[in-house]
Structures are given as C-alpha cells and as structure tokens.
Amino acid sequence: KAGVTQTPRYLIKTRGQQVTLSCSPISGHRSVSWYQQTPGQGLQFLFEYFSETQRNKGNFPGRFSGRQFSNSRSEMNVSTLELGDSALYLCASSLVREGRKNTEAFFGQGTRLTVV
Amino acid sequence: SQQGEEDPQALSIQEGENATMNCSYKTSINNLQWYRQNSGRGLVHLILIRSNEREKHSGRLRVTLDTSKKSSSLLITASRAADTASYFCATSFFGNEKLTFGTGTRLTIIP
C-alpha cells in the first residue's frame, strides 16, 4: 500500500507570492492533517480535514488555508508569503474508525518551502 | 504551542547500548504516539499507546505510559547507527485527530 505522498518536495518562492501544496493520503484514509515544522516553533498543527470538511484549525493566520477533495486528497494554500513561512510542511493521514477513536497518523516526506 | 517537553534534548550513546528518552505532557490525553525523523525529512510512525495501556513493545522499542505523571518513555534497545534521528512524542484527545508534539530528542548513535 502506498504511503502518504506530498508534492512538490521542494519549493522556492518570493515574498508576496502564493503557494499550493498537495497531499495524497494512504488509500482508505479519510482524515488529512497539515503541520508546519520550523526550528524555532517545532511542529505546529495547521488544520485537519475529514470528508471534505475542516474539523480542526490551528492558530495560524487566514493566509493559510486548505481543502479536501472527494477522493480525500488535500491541498493547502499560503497566500502573501512571508519570510517566516519558510518551513517544512508535513501532511498526515489517518484511518478514522467508528466512534472516532484515534488511530495512527502516518506522515508524508514533507514539502520544504523556502521564501526569499 | 507545544504540549510538553522531551528529555533529554540530545543524547549520544555507543552503538549497542540502550537509549531512553522521556516525554512529558500537560493535559489528559486519549493516546500518545512516538515518531522518528531523519534529517528534516518526514516523520516515521513508531508506536501508539492508548491512555488505558501502560506498556507496549514493537521489535527493539518499548514504550511506557504513566497517565498519573503525564509522562511517557521510549526505550530503544541494542541501538544501531541507523537509529540516529530525532524522536518526537505526540498526544491527541478523543475524537480529535490533532496531534500536539513535544520538542523532540536528538539521538546520535556512535559507531
């Protein structure tokens, strides 16, 4: 079974631009979450999508947004990029069973975004 | 914000020795997961332990959970050079897929 796939692996953008990152979850997984990892703040939760609906959102500005498609693939978008948005963006998928009992979350290799 | 701290922040041991790292968290949880990360790449899932479990094993890994102390430990036995990585604990609450990560332990195995 294929793992979580994130594209692209690397991106270089200029301040003020916008960027879209993509995540394909493990087949059958309906929950997709996004995280930002920086040396200063560590791993921070951005948002989670389940069945095309955002269920949870972290403490990030509105420039960070996402969506999920009917096939569970997800995208996140960052508009008006700032230097501080440079980070490793990680996507995780999990199989949400009945009763919403938490299951393992599996991560992709991440997208390394550099804003110059 | 981070859920808690991991201790130690960095650990260097000789190959073949055991490595123990600890994770403390602040609030009640549903489960706790441990991950490994190599050189800023993706997170590799190691083990999940639920709040009603006290100990789990997976190969050379042993995880304990003490909910009264709000802490967990990860033991890697007979360490190998390939175990060199950063290790993170992550907690979650019932019905919520959000993971809250610790600060991580950087483990270096000296051949």
Structure description:
The complex is a heterodimer of chains A (116) and B (111). Chain A contains no helices and 11 strands. The model of chain A has no long low-confidence stretch (mean pLDDT 93). Chain A is 0% helix and 53% strand. Chain A has 116 residues and is mainly beta. Chain B is 0% helix and 57% strand. In chain B, the strands form 2 sheets. In chain B, strands 2, 4, 5, 9, 10 and 11 form a 6-stranded mixed beta sheet that branches. A 5-stranded antiparallel beta sheet of chain B has the order 1-3-8-7-6, with no helix packed on it. The model of chain B has no long low-confidence stretch (mean pLDDT 92). At the A-B interface, strand 4, strand 5, strand 9 and strand 10 of A face strand 4, strand 5, strand 9 and strand 10 of B.
Q: Low-confidence stretches of chain A at least 5 residues in length (pLDDT < 50)?
A: none
First-residue to last-residue Cα separation of chain B: 36 Å
Helicity of chain A, as a percent range: under 10%
Shape of chain A: globular
Features:
heterodimer; A: four-stranded antiparallel beta sheet; B: 111 residues; mainly beta; six-stranded mixed beta sheet; five-stranded antiparallel beta sheet
Explain the layout of strands and helices.
The complex is a heterodimer of chains A (116) and B (111).
Chain A: E1 5-7, E2 10-13, E3 19-24, E4 31-38, E5 42-50, E6 53-57, E7 64-68, E8 74-78, E9 87-94, E10 105-107, E11 111-115
Chain B: E1 4-7, E2 10-14, E3 19-25, E4 31-37, E5 43-50, E6 55-58, E7 61-66, E8 71-76, E9 85-92, E10 100-101, E11 105-110
Parallel strand pairs in B: 2-11
Antiparallel strand pairs in B: 1-3, 3-8, 4-5, 4-9, 6-7, 7-8, 9-10, 9-11
Give a short overview.
The complex is a heterodimer of chains A (116) and B (111). Chain A has strands at 5-7, 10-13, 19-24, 31-38, 42-50, 53-57, 64-68, 74-78, 87-94, 105-107, 111-115. By secondary structure, chain A is an all-beta fold.
